[in-house]
Amino acid sequence: MMAGWRLVGGLSFLVAAMTAGLIVSHGGDVEGLRVAIRATARTSLLLFVLAFTASAMVELVPSDATRWQRRNRRYLGVSFAVSHFIHLGAILALASVDRALFWKLTNTTTIMLAGTAYLFIAAMAATSFDRTAAWLGPRKWRLLHLIGSWYIWISFAIAVGKRVPLERFYWPMFGLVLAAAIVRLLAMFGRNRRRGPIKAS
Question: Is the dihedral of CA 76, 46, 70, 140 positive or negative?
């Protein structure tokens, strides 16, 4: 099974090829961009969930698959970053082709929330290398990735959740977002229970 930086390369190529294929197949028009935006939203969410739940899954359901997921958490996270920046590229292309439609589909508040998420994604991807992680330090690295991952989760929950009443397409995605948080919280509660109560001295 593919792993490490080869996994990043393979997944990045597949997402880029898929995006280009969807746009070209629609003649590079607005509909092609919208299809590419929806497709990359799916790939980004799937890759994010795999990285977000990696440690929790191996605790809750230990297996060869979840151990592979945990070993490749860094690479799944970087692949998510690549997918989501391709997603951003498609959004910016839509804005340049049809500005009126772009503003019909979004607003300033959404742009600010999403912009902050992209800052976290960029920072987390940049510190996914041994040298940059060492430069940041273990404590700051853990804090950045903890806060960043939950902020990205919240941004997905808001972005997908507000579209659920409008399109059935978003129901499975919203279910995946909720499942990711449940898995993380179950693993956290399990760790706390194993530690037991803190005794007063």
Answer: positive
* Per-residue model confidence (pLDDT) at position 168: 81
- Is the pLDDT assigned to residue 2 strictly greater than 60? yes
pTM, rounded to two decimals? 0.91
Question: H helices of 53-170, where?
Answer: 54-60, 64-71, 73-97, 99-105, 108-126, 130-136, 138-161
Tally of residues, the chain:
201
d(CA 125, CA 129): 8
Domains annotated on the chain, with CATH: 4-191 (1.20.120)
What pLDDT is stored for residue 197 in this prediction?
A: 58
CA atoms within a 13 Å half-sphere pointing along the CA-CB vector of 44: 25
